[in-house]
Amino acid sequence: MTKHSKSASNYSRRDTLRMMALGGAAGIFAPNLLTEPAFGQKAPRTPKGRIVVGLSQEPTVFNPLMAHIEVDDGVHFSLFDALFRIDPKGVIQPNLAVEVPTQKNGGISEDGLKWRIRLRDDVRWHDDKPFTAEDVKFTLELITKPNFRSWRTTGHSLVRDITVVSPVEITWRMEQAFAPYLSFLTETFMVPKHILEKEADPNNAAFNQTPIGTGAFKWGTRVPGDRIELLANSNYFGEGPHIERLIFKYIPDLTVLYTQFKSGDVDIVGQSYITPDHYQEARKLPNRVVTLEPKSSFESLYLNVERPQFKELQVRQALYAAIDKKAIIEGLYYGVPTPTETFMPRQSFYHNPGLPLHEFNVKRAQQILDAAGWAPGRDKIRVKDGVRLSFTNSTTSGDPLREQVQQYLQQTFAEIGVEMTISNLPAAVMWGEYWQRSRFDSVIVGSTYLIGADPDVTNRLHSLSIGNKGGRGSNNAQYVNPEVDALLEKGSRTFDPEARRAIYFRVQELVRHDLPLLPLYQNVSVQGHKKGIQGAVSNGNTRTESWNAGAWSWAS
Amino acid sequence: MRGFLLNRLSQSLALLVIVSIIGFTILSLIPGGPLSQFARDPGMTQQDIERLAEQLGLNRPLWIQYFDWAWRLVQGDWGRSLRDGTYVLSVIGRHLFATFLLMGTSTVIAIAIGTWIGIRGATHRYSLFDYLATIGAMVALSIPTFWFGLVGIYVFTLKLGWVPAGNMYTIGDGSVLDYLHHLILPSVVLSLVHVAIWSRYMRTATLDAISQDFVKTARAKGVSERRILLKHVVGNALLPMITLAGVQLPSILTGALVTETVFTWPGMGRLFLDSLGYSDYPVVMGLLMFSAILVILGNLIADIVVAIVDPRIRLG
């Protein structure tokens, strides 16, 4: 049912990691010769035509270091480069760097504290100035400047003693070993020192409206509320660009976005893609390629485990058993999403496929509650020690599909003597303090737990990440498990992918057992593009469909 | 006249202050705010969000935020958008043309057709035309604009291929003809509702004028029906319509939320909707003040025009 995009290569992830290590070692002796990664290939210099990407939100933040949302990523990936990029298989590849640093190739010291990055020597900014290690230093320092409105500071705040060894080599020290930082650097785009250092206030620099990067496309024009036009950078060091102009068109209504894809005004449907109800029709459209692509987000019934109703594991188990996932997916979501047992996306190297499978069984749910001493009260709602098994469930109002899921859950929960009251809120209310300070009983939420493709989920599941208790993350379920805490701490200090895999497999087992969230399904996006477009490969390890626009071309 | 204008000016300033306080308070009461969009970003910590709130001054007491904003406004600084960092006046300015083009065209269509239907409906009361116009107006007023818009796109774009599916112009073209081609469907869809409103008002105003004594007098004097209609009836019936036009004037520049969304028209209506969704306080407040000024101006202009065309009214 679910069709995933396939890569032409047959090597496994493990093989790739080995190859990367070998390639990296060779690269020490011959930079830019031995390592010609997927994002560092020369291409014919005859860009032709244009591609229009339709987006349902408007990109508005063009300084990639400033706080921004998913939809801005497509513009950033096209205009800028990071030291590394992550490919569709979840493997980190060199981009502005000539190799990916590992403990094996000496790029990262054994204790994980000293990092050395070697850079390409053939990269130029769009204004033809050379890109050097000074730009990397400037970028990393800008992110943690107190007055700069930067996006994420996790990981960056641990960087100390940045030293420019040469124009193509930079080193730094980490305050503590932090393996996810490599993944964070795949989403940290480099900005030009020679332009931004002159700005008294980088928050309001002219650069932020007319950015200059090293990417496959240069800034063209912006018509606010309508579109952004980027132009081919014919001096790009990497693959492409093969098209003259890349246009991001803002179409706020999803039905209209789909209609304009049908009518041919839009060449590629970007975020938020084609709605599931149009999938069956869309896949039959002539001269269009419509595929189901796994996303990194998953949908869950998320519980506030500090609420007396949810403190007992048996209650959470019973609720999970009373969810008819199959009916929800097939009846309400047109069979598009994939059922899941974990927060880890299926396409991840760290996804644990051996977790116990959910089974919809109302009788079993009733038996669990009976055995736990939750007896039906006069109104048939179960009670134990003065606690009624009644709770509210919230989600963003105005989402008809989620509202139907809620009604469906409400009915099956009633069958096991559980009362669920629906209390939906506008997005601004829902995701404000109500969410951040754990004011809810339960919510239906779509979440992405990974940053880039790194499996570290400290921010979501560590007990020190409970915002309501002064924590620094978004463990809004208020979930506490000391073993999970210890594993997460170990995982963030471990650099070897195989060793990390074992750690995060165990984390998933524990979370599946404890059920602070009842996983429903992994989100899948219905993506579409015109048949003549080549190179439009989905990458569930990034947040955008436009992660490799440099490689896009029109079939001649 | 001078006294009237001074009086109006002082009233208007007081009104603007009240509008700004109410608007600012209501906006600030909405939980969430501009940073709530980052709440589900796995890479952003609570500290990141609090840091941004402090940098943007969003964690200050409400009254300080208001006075800071108001003081800057008095000095001519409308602030910067929280979304893209550009000046609010520049943001508004860049969306004005699109809205003016769409709303201006649809208003002209609506006034021309609505006035004609209204007069004809009144002079041919209870005729087939009158019934059809009444039913048509009810249908146009009852059915939401987005429905008309989507049906229009389905029929005239996807099935017949006559007009584009939306957008203000074709990327890479942008000729006058191209603009007009794109303007047809949204302006017709938008004018449907306005035709209905104008025709109903005009019919009532015309009927009211027809029953006046001066019409009977004119008829008794033997003035031709055509002359009675054009000179006496329509002339008087248009007076309340001037007031209505004054009230509707702001909408020409403040846009149509739904139509602009359905037809991906980059105008003020969509800007307002987007800014509200994002809690872009400076832009929302800017749009609110802009609309308030237009409402005040619209009413002022209507009063002055009525006073000029209606000799019974004297300002001052």
Your description of this structure?
The complex is a heterodimer of chains A (556) and B (316). With 556 residues, chain A is an alpha+beta fold. Chain A has 16 helices and 21 strands. Helices cover 75% and strands 0% of the residues of chain B. Chain B contains twelve helices and no strands. In chain B, helix 4 packs across helix 7, helix 4 packs across helix 12 and helix 8 runs antiparallel to helix 9. The model of chain B has no long low-confidence stretch (mean pLDDT 88). The interface between A and B is large, with 64 and 56 residues.
| Number of E-state strands of chain A | 21
Q: Mean pLDDT of chain B, nearest integer?
A: 88
What is the β-strand count of chain B?
A: 0
Main β-sheet of chain B, in a few words? none
Using a beta-carbon cutoff below 8 angstroms, give the protein chain pair with the largest interface and the number of residues from each chain: A-B, 64 and 56 residues
Fraction of residues in β-strands of chain B: under 5%
Give a short synopsis of this structure:
The complex is a heterodimer of chains A (556) and B (316). Chain A has helices at 13-29, 70-79, 133-143, 181-185, 193-196, 254-263, 279-282, 313-321, 325-332, 362-371, 400-415, 427-430, 433-436, 458-461, 482-493, 497-514, and strands spanning 50-55, 84-86, 92-94, 114-118, 159-166, 169-174, 217-223, 227-232, 245-250, 268-274, 288-303, 338-339, 375-376, 382-384, 387-388, 390-394, 419-422, 442-448, 517-530, 533-534, 553-554.
What brief labels describe this structure?
heterodimer, A: alpha+beta, three-stranded antiparallel sheet, 16 helices, 26% helix, 21% strand, disordered N terminus, B: 316 residues, 12 helices, 0% strand
